């Protein structure tokens, strides 16, 4: 039985508009007489957000508002973590403090839950016949690309992973260890909520009254890069081997370019053999770092010297293959750069297989 909905509102420098969104929340009559619990988390705003909230609470005692604040700015994700931990409703929904989303649509999100079909409901800005402000072509393309990539790993068919409106069963989301402090919250929570056995996820169309940057929009291209990183970070180590190999294509490609650049820089001062093996070990360090942060991180917490020895031996063996291949191609008259590219290609598949089944094998 759903008797209370917790509405989580992270706020940062929303002093001018937060009373508007609170008025809209107050006006909503939830279906089945569901009670509203509003949880506002002020993420160390530098404007008059706090006084605006306190004034609103004093003037509207009939609205159940719980107010919390951070002593330092920690990011939207961190504010959501705080709000989620304080929620007492059976379900909770996320509401931005701006005016981009309409609280009157809470009931649309609630219907699949009330009717017994859903545990989680996402509000999609890209489906249905609701009004949408026309803004930022490249933002919409970026959102769709991030959603598609997320879907590839989670095996969902969401249309809007980055949406603000997400409705969760409170106990389920409180049981998840969430880490992302900023806008990486969206791909992280999507990745982790899908791991709950038999979770039922629905999506409904919502309206979207987007803001310009002049009107206070805060998300930027750096947040999109972080979202991309989070999609890989929180999904890849649990994905199928084909997707893991695609991620390793990226890791291996970055490592290979780094290998080549170091080799070319060293070969003007050192013998080819020394340059090749030195470049290889530099690239191996970068490859290891990327692997534990993006791909095999759950299996990289080594505790014995034997595991370190396995890593050293396998990397040294592939390093020897890399050096011999590089020198062999050069001896056949191939240019240094092309020789290094060939050698890198030979070792690439070996690298992935060794990391997958030996270095970072499942414990």
What's the alpha carbon Rg, rounded to whole Å? 25 Å
- Residues in β-strands, percent: 5-15%
Can you tell me the CATH architecture of the largest domain?
Answer: Alpha-Beta Complex
Low-confidence stretches: none
Tell me roughly what share of residues is in helical segments. Answer: 40-55%
| CATH domain class of the largest domain | Alpha Beta
CATH superfamily of the largest domain: Spore Coat Polysaccharide Biosynthesis Protein SpsA, Chain A
Number of separate helices: 12
Quote the distance from N terminus to C terminus. 41 Å
Largest sheet: 7 strands, mixed
The coarse silhouette is elongated
- Derived from helix and strand composition plus strand pairing, the structural class reads alpha/beta
Instruction: Give the beta-strand count.
Output: 7
What are the secondary-structure elements, in order, as H or E? EHEHEHEHEHEHHEHHHHH
Round the mean pLDDT to the nearest integer and report it: 89
The CATH topology label of the largest domain is Spore Coat Polysaccharide Biosynthesis Protein SpsA, Chain A
Number of domains: 2
Q: Give the neighbour order of strands across the main sheet.
A: 3-2-1-4-6-5-7
């Amino acid at each position: 039985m759903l008797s209370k909905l917790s509405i989580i509102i992270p706020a940062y420098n929303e002093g001018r508009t937060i009373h508007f969104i609170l008025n809209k929340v107050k006006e909503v009559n939830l279906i089945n007489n569901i009670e509203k619990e509003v949880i506002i988390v002020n993420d160390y705003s530098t404007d008059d957000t706090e006084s605006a909230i306190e004034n609103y609470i004093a003037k509207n005692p009939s609205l159940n508002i719980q107010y919390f604040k951070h002593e330092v700015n920690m990011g939207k994700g961190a504010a959501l973590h705080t709000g989620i931990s304080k929620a007492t409703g059976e379900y909770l929904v996320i509401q931005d403090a701006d005016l981009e989303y309409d609280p009157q649509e809470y009931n649309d999100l609630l219907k699949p839950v009330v009717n017994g079909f859903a545990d989680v409901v996402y509000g999609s800005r890209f489906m249905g016949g609701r009004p949408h402000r026309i803004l930022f072509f490249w933002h919409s393309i970026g959102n769709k690309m991030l959603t598609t990539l997320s879907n590839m790993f989670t095996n969902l068919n969401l249309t809007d992973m980055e949406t603000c409106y997400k409705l969760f069963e409170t106990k389920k989301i409180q049981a998840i260890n969430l880490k992302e402090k900023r806008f990486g919250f969206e791909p992280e929570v999507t990745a982790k909520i899908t791991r709950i056995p038999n979770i039922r996820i629905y999506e409904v169309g919502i309206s979207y009254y987007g803001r310009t940057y002049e009107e206070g929009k805060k998300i930027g291209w750096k947040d999109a890069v972080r979202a991309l990183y989070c999609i890989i970070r929180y999904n890849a180590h649990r994905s199928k081997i084909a997707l893991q190999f695609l991620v390793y294509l990226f890791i291996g490609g970055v490592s290979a370019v780094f290998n080549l650049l170091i080799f070319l820089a060293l070969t003007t001062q050192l013998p080819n053999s020394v340059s090749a093996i030195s470049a290889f070990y530099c690239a191996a360090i970068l490859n290891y770092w990327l692997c534990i942060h993006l791909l095999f991180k759950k299996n990289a917490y080594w505790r014995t010297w034997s595991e370190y020895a396995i890593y050293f031996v396998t990397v040294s063996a592939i390093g020897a293959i890399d050096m011999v291949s590089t020198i062999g191609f050069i001896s056949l008259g191939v240019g240094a750069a092309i020789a290094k590219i060939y050698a890198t290609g030979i070792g690439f598949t070996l690298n992935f297989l060794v990391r997958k089944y030996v270095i970072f094998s499942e414990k």
